[in-house]
Specification:
Layout (H helix, E strand, L loop, with lengths): L7 H8 L6 E4 L6 H9 L4 E6 L2 H11 L6 E5 L5 H7 L5 E7 L4 H5 L24 H7 L2 H12 L4 H12 L7 H9 L12 H12 L1 H15 E11 L2 H16 L3 E3 L9 H6 L7 E7 L1
Parallel strand pairs: 1-2, 1-4, 2-3, 4-5
Antiparallel strand pairs: 5-7, 6-7
Enzyme class: transferase
Protein name: Ribosomal RNA small subunit methyltransferase H
Family: Belongs to the methyltransferase superfamily. RsmH family.
Amino acid sequence: MYHISVMPSESSQYLVNNENGLYVDCTFGGGGHSLYLLKKHKNIKIIAFDWDSDAFARFQETQKLFDGRLTFIKDNFKNIKAALAAINVKKVDGILADVGVSSKQFDDMDRGFSFNSKVLDMRMDVSNPLTAKEVINSFSQDELADIFYRYGQEYRSRQIAQAIYERRKRGVINTALELQDIIRSVKRPEGKINPATKVFQALRIFVNKELENLEGLLTDACEVLSFGGRIVIISFHSLEDSIVKKNFKENSANGIYKILTKKVVIASDEEMRGNPRSRSAKIRAAERV
């Protein structure tokens, strides 16, 4: 199981403005959002993007239920404009992106996202040549510190980078578990939060160019949305949310978007109790005008 999709009802509420429209699910994953939308809105069609090969297997199972209403493109959503043009689609009625990492990716010990993984990979697309292991073992101490601070907002970034640099003198750091132990030697736990959390977040974002990909999606989205079409972004930390907020604000000021969410939409108390992952999720939505 990939994970329980976050705020599917709220996503649908803000996304679907045309009951016969064509929509893009930029982050298909386990298909949860697409499945919800296709069941709820009987006449819409969805083009699903994902760059994770595991997602395609899930798509093959899901598409059988919907008789041609679901199409899959194995690509990064930053390429949305070119990828849609390649299948002769110029405009769509809505774009949905859940930019968090799936629980399946975290739980798969061969992917290296977990603190206790025996590998150090963190690639969402396994064809990506850059792994977290390469970053940790070959980047300079200053480069590591900058990554940890910029992408993880880690206040002990310099000390952690120094500890990694010193540990590298004794040999290659091969596993996520080893990296976690190094971080724990520098930084104590804060409550229930693992002290390696921010560094692991930073590595994952850097390796997969998550912020750059999100910016690419937002740049092209306004060009592929039909007038009246909507864009809904679900983000999970402040770096992503600030990028979305800034883009929507600028496009609103330029008369391109009407912002539908004056404040971020968060999950209900009931959903948070049933799906802890939803606690950090934020929805922002806008409409093309």
